[in-house]
Amino acid sequence: MRRSGYIILFFVLLLSSVKTVFAQSRNNLFIQNDVLVLELDVNSPAPVLDSILKVAGVAAENTPKIKAGDFKPMADDGWSMIMRNGNLVTFNRPLAELNDNPQDMPLRITVNLPQFDGEPGYPKDVKYGINRFKKNTVYGLSSGLTRFVLPGYFRAKRVFLSGSFNQWSTLKGAMKKIEGGWIIDVKLEPGVYAYKFITDGRWTTDPNNLLQSDDGVGNTNSIFYKYNYTIKLKGYSSAKKVVLTGDFNNWDNNEITLQKRGNVWERPLYLSEGKHAYHFLVDGRKVSDPVNPLKLKDGESNLNSLLTVGGTVSFKLAGYENAKKVYVSGNFNGWKHNDLAMDKTANGWVLNTTLAAGNYQYKFIVDGHWITDPANPNYAKEGGIENSFLSVKPNQTFRLKGYSNAKRVTLTGNFNYWEGEGYTMTHAGDEWVISVYLKPGKCLYKFRVDGKWIIDPANSLWEPNDRGTDNSVLWKE
After folding, report:
1. How far, in Å, CA of 355 to CA of 185, rounded?
2. Measured between alpha carbons, how far is 204 from 220 in angstroms, rounded to an integer?
3. CATH of 229-309 among 3.30.710.10, 2.30.110.10, 2.60.40.10, 3.30.530.80
């Protein structure tokens, strides 16, 4: 149990005429007779409440309201307040879906409760991933669901699966007891996920998973990759070893070994959206992909195959009919000046390429001259230099009403490391608007109106920062 920031007290639970005493913190979550009980100290720091509300399945964006004594969000989520004693408030809600494994004695699930303040608990973006299990206990089903199996633990009363895919909640993570252990099926999109099992209140990593990661706040989580691609090489039946190597794994010649199945060498893996250069090593001999027509020369004029994953982004520049060469350059390609050549059309220049979901800055290079996109009203700065701004697969639209006389309104936050003035917003009607891509987790942000910082007047969620002012808060699932 974490002691820092907690006050230890004793309380007595009466069950079947037997009194059981527990030492606990002021914020607790436990199961009692198939009822989930949540005890909160509303005077606790916001990060502490954020963590336990997530584990209880309550939307963490309700923390400011709950701290202020507004418990309507709890009621809307199915919780009933059964007792209040000063700052201590107790709620419960039935867990009818758990009746397959009834719990007579109280089961604590707040022991060693992970703290999830912002990004900790959410894996970093990766270019590729391959699972490593001692025993294959997490795997995809033909239905598209992913099955998690925890063998053993026959004496456990309750087992939960909790992870970054459900904001570390236990409310929907109850596993079913079967012959040989515990099981649950989860819907996951391709990507990288962190997770743990909770067995009778004890948070543990997956004993069969060899991949683990430190989440940055002292916790270790198991890591699972939901695959989205299977690389294949036909033929070479007499080969002894076939290896896949590419820019995504720094051209490691030994890491990704393909498996022979009939007349095909193959390996499933997770690949991030974007472009990936690669080739095969057949018994040490370099071989490009014979069924992939896309090729790319590296700096040493070697020919590699090129694989694109994700959606297509179209860059267009009107005019400049007399230009000889036009390129696109941005932080997505390290600002290389001669990497992405545009094709000349009747109306200007165009380039279709593949980029992963995210926020980017870019410019056009017309016969050696760098220019921003004249058709794009959104800008951002990097190193004090203004560039055009592009969001690929945006999942959040920010709006600021009013300020019709403002000359420049920008958005900035922890999603761009509070860089410079942030992203320039577009004035449309009576509001300023911009759409961006946000990763799951806690988003802190502010608007800047003609140089003046303000929090979002339409968002009641905010928290103080280390500069003595406030930041608006948004939780992205």
Report:
1. 31
2. 9
3. 2.60.40.10
C-alpha span between 401 and 249 (Å, rounded): 46
Residue 205 has phi, psi (to 5 degrees) of -75, 165
Q: Report the amino acid identity of residue 456.
A: D
Looking at the DSSP bridge assignments, the partners of residue 385 are 382
DSSP 75-139: HHTT-EEEEEETTEEEEEEE-GGGTTS---S-EE--TTPPP--SSTTSPPP-SEE---BSS--EE
The pairs formed by 66-69 with CB atoms below 8 angstroms and a separation of 24 or more are 66/40, 66/42, 67/42, 67/43, 69/42
CATH class of 394-477: mainly beta
Could you tell me if residue 379 is left (phi over 0), alpha (psi between -120 and 50 degrees) or otherwise beta? beta
422: which 2 tokens? 């942030």
Q: Is the pTM of this model over 0.70?
A: no
d(CA 274, CA 308): 6
Do 44 and 27 touch, CB atoms closer than 8 A?
A: yes
CA 11 to chain CA centroid, Å, is 38
Q: Which residues lie below 8 Å from residue 18, measured CB to CB, with a gap of 6+? A: none
One-letter amino acid at 206 equals D
- C-alpha distance from residue 114 to each of 220, 327, 430 (Å): 10, 47, 43
How far is it, in rounded angstroms, from Cα 248 to Cα 132? 18
d(CA 453, CA 466): 15
* CA-based end-to-end distance of the chain: 27
387/383 Cα distance (integer angstroms):
10
- The answer to whether 279 and 245 have CB atoms below 8 angstroms apart is yes
C-alpha span between 108 and 393 (Å, rounded): 40
Look up residue 238 and give its DSSP letter: T
Tell me the two tokens of residue 419. 């860089």
pLDDT in tens, 183-227: 899 999 898 999 999 888 888 999 999 999 887 667 789 999 999
User: pLDDT, tens digit, for every residue of 335-375?
Assistant: 988 888 999 998 899 998 888 888 999 999 999 999 999 99
For 416, which DSSP code? G
DSSP secondary structure string, 399-410?
A: EEE--TT-S-EE
Tokens at residue 140, please?
């995809």
The CATH architecture to which 128-226 belongs is Sandwich (2.60)
Query: Where along the chain do the CATH 2.60.40.10 domains lie?
Result: 128-226, 229-309, 311-393, 394-477
CATH superfamily label, 311-393: Immunoglobulins (2.60.40.10)
- Token readout for 442 is 């806690």
Q: Is the pLDDT of residue 397 over 60?
A: yes
